[in-house]
UniProtKB/TrEMBL annotation:
It comes from Endobacter medicaginis. The lineage of its organism: Bacteria, Pseudomonadati, Pseudomonadota, Alphaproteobacteria, Acetobacterales. The chain crosses the membrane at residues 6-22, 34-53. The keyword Transmembrane applies. This is Kef-type K+ transport system membrane component KefB. The keyword Transmembrane applies. Keywords: Membrane, Transmembrane, Transmembrane helix.
Length: 58
């Protein structure tokens, strides 16, 4: 498994966690955790895009 696959797998896991979170919890806790998951997902996608831009991954 390459680093690209690892980052993509992490983003998929984050999306699944967000989906389960929305189903299981309501209110402020869900919003706070969902916001944190979105921030992490954006960070991972930013890392992936930067690596692609620099030619580390194709």
């Amino acid at each position: 498994m390459t680093l690209t696959h690892g980052l993509l797998a992490a983003m998929i896991v984050i999306a699944l966690l967000a989906h389960l979170l929305v189903r299981w919890q309501t209110g402020d806790e869900a919003r706070a955790m969902l916001t944190a998951l979105v921030i992490v997902a954006l960070g991972l996608s930013g890392v992936l895009a930067q690596m692609w831009w620099r030619g580390v991954i194709l």
